Each structure stands twice: as C-alpha cells, then as structure tokens.
Amino acid sequence: MRILRTTFLLGGLMTLVAAGDVNAQSSDAPSADARAIRAARAAQNAAIAAGDLDAVTAFWTEDITVRRALGSSVAGRAAARAAFEPPTGAAPTGAATATPRIVYRRIPNEIDVSTHWPLAFESGVWEGREGTGDGPVIIGGKFSAQWVKRDGRWLIRSEVFVALTCAGAGCSLLAVP
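Structure (tokenized):
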C-alpha cells in the first residue's frame, strides 16, 4: 500500500512538473505584442540617449504617471517631459560640469501581455549613466511599467522606479526620473 501511494504521488508530481514545463515553454516565446513593447522601449532608450525629448514623450500616454526613483511623483506628459530637461548649468554631452547630464536606460527582464485587455506589464532594471550612454553608471535600480495599446500602438501609462544602487554623483542626487 505504501509503495502504491508513493508511486501515485511521484507520478502526480511528474505530471505537474511536465505540465509546468509545457506552460513555461509556450510562455517563453515572446508574442508579437511583447516584441513590439521591447522595440518601443529600445527606441525610447535611444531617444533618451540622444536627448530627443519629443521622441521620449511619444511613448507615453497623455495621462502618464511616474513614481520617480527616490519617491517623488509626476503626473501628465508635460510634467514627465520636464523631469527629463537637462539640469540648469548642465554642459553639453561630454563636457565637464558640476551638474552632470544623466542618461537613463531601462532594461526589460519580463513583459507580460494580457490575453483579455489591451494591457501589458513590464519589469526590469534601470540605470543612469553620467554624461553619455557609455558613461559610468551612477544610479540604478528596478522598475515596472504598465503599457496600454491604443490605435494599434503600445504606450506607457504608468511607471515606477526604485533606486537601489548609486556611485559618485549619483549618491548625492535628490530627485531623478
């Protein structure tokens, strides 16, 4: 009886593991929507690096909300754009300045697209590099974003950033996007 019960339990576990593997394999293949979101994020990262604020904001809904890395909140596209404006006294890319330009990059780890609504959830890590996209990382952490599909295009409706690491000038920042 004990052998039969053990065999039954092991067989049940193996079935669950096999079913889990099948589900994991099918969810590992990114959907067209997940690929579109990754492409949009990469394009926004490129716009941030280039300092093209009009292109950066094109990926946001008009009513975007952002919880910035050190806790302050921003509501609306205009306010979120203002958070990306170069700090007063910032020098052009590559020039020395007391107020460094920080180039932010979001690196998605996971994108989950709803099968019921035009919504997606993105999570990953972010970093802020001093001066250029190739400069030293001075602040970083984790982020999440809610994407919404409107007129066939994926847009960011909300983002939450949490600062977890810093180095040099990044440790003295009071507010970062």
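Residues 1-27 have pLDDT under 50 and may be disordered. The beta strands are 60-67, 73-75, 102-113, 119-130, 137-150, 153-166.
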